[in-house]
Write a structure and sequence with these properties.
Blueprint: E1 3-4, E2 7-9, E3 24-26, E4 38-47, E5 50-60, E6 65-69, H1 76-83, E7 91-96, E8 99-101, H2 110-113, E9 116-119, H3 133-143, H4 148-162, H5 166-169, H6 178-190, E10 196-200, H7 208-225, E11 228-232, H8 236-242, E12 245-248
Parallel strand pairs: 3-12, 6-11, 6-12, 9-10, 10-11
Antiparallel strand pairs: 1-2, 2-8, 4-5, 4-7, 7-8
Bound molecules: adenosine-5'-triphosphate.
Keywords: ATP-binding, Nucleotide-binding, Transport
Region (Disordered): 1-24
Protein name: Peptide/nickel transport system ATP-binding protein
């Protein structure tokens, strides 16, 4: 097992598989053997005595959109947070492009953690109310030491992509709509050009036109960069339109 900066070569993650066709299957049986992928391997998570995920395997290949489906409380958001390298599983591990990830959040090198981005349902819970939207978008760049001028230019480019005008960029969260704030969160998520984007009910509280616009930005990004997307949604139409395959999590307690 070779150790590089914060990542180990994961056993059982060599060899390649093509992007799978649309299938619905038990998440615990999905094979997880590919080099270029973001994958959960036998991931188990409990909160206190409640086991939420029990030896779950899930793989997202570059360029594909994997839908994650399951009843409320089945652990979809928990699994997304594990894959986003925000929450350490109690057992099992995450691999990133064939390397076992050892650690979460800032314990990981920036080059590892910035390969995965997550977009949550509530932009208000995910943003600092004291920052302008421009600062919210540029925040991850500043956190990784990108020079201010370069960060501003990249943030402006992304703001344009998601449809935020300079007037909106100067405002703070309390002075914009949820849709406008979620646009800023999407720009922030893309700012490091992640290889994998996890969307956890990211468009659920948006009106139809904002939802369509953000979905178009993400699919364009995905096409241009070959990014893998994990899509969590309770909207069957969105799932059917976007997901190339769907993985089911079993109901809680089964
Ligand atoms: N930080 C936490 N502390 C304690 N319990 C938690 C925590 N986060 C989630 N849970 C519990 O874990 C279970 C799974 O939650 P999770 O949000 O992952 O499910 P979900 O499938 O995304 O649900 P939904 O579709 O309703 O969003 C739930 O019973 C939830 O109450």
């Amino acid at each position: 097992m070779t150790t590089t900066d914060g990542v180990d070569v994961a056993p059982g993650t060599t060899g390649g598989t093509a992007t799978a066709p649309r299938t619905t299957c038990d998440a615990r049986t999905v094979p997880s053997t590919t080099v270029a992928a973001l994958a959960a391997h036998e991931v188990t998570v409990s909160y206190g005595r409640q086991r939420v995920l029990d030896r779950v395997d899930l793989r997202v290949d570059p360029g594909e959109t994997v839908g994650l489906h399951g009843p409320s409380g089945s652990g979809k958001s928990t699994l997304a947070r594990v894959l986003a390298l925000l929450h350490a599983p109690d057992a099992g591990h995450v691999s990133l492009d064939g390397h076992r990830v050892a650690g979460v959040r800032h314990r990981l090198p920036a080059a590892v953690r910035t390969r995965v981005a997550i977009l949550f349902q509530s932009p208000r819970a995910a943003t600092d109310p004291r920052l302008s939207l421009a600062d919210i978008v540029a925040e991850p760049l500043r956190a990784t030491g990108v020079p201010a001028e370069q960060a501003r230019a990249r943030a402006a480019e992304l703001a344009d992509l998601v449809g935020l005008t300079p007037d909106l960029l100067a405002r703070r969260p309390h002075a914009v709509s949820d849709g406008q704030l979620q646009r800023a969160c999407l720009a922030r998520a893309l700012v490091h050009r992640p290889a994998y984007l996890l969307c956890d009910e990211a468009t659920a509280m948006l009106d139809a036109s904002t939802q369509a616009h953000l979905a178009a930005v993400i699919t364009d990004y995905q096409r241009e960069h070959g990014a893998g997307v994990l899509l969590i949604t309770h909207d069957p139409a969105l799932m059917a339109r976007w997901a190339t395959r769907v993985v089911d999590l079993p109901p809680p307690g089964t």
